[in-house]
Amino acid sequence: MENIFDTTYRQDYLNGYSNGLNPYIDYDEVKYNDAFHSGFVSGRLDYENRNGYIIDGIPKRIVTKKVLEDFLLAGLLGLPPDTDGYTNFQLNVLAKWYQSGTEKYDPNQSMYLFAILEKNGIQVKETYYM
Question: How far is the C-alpha of 55 from the C-alpha of 31, rounded, in Å?
Answer without folding.
Answer: 22
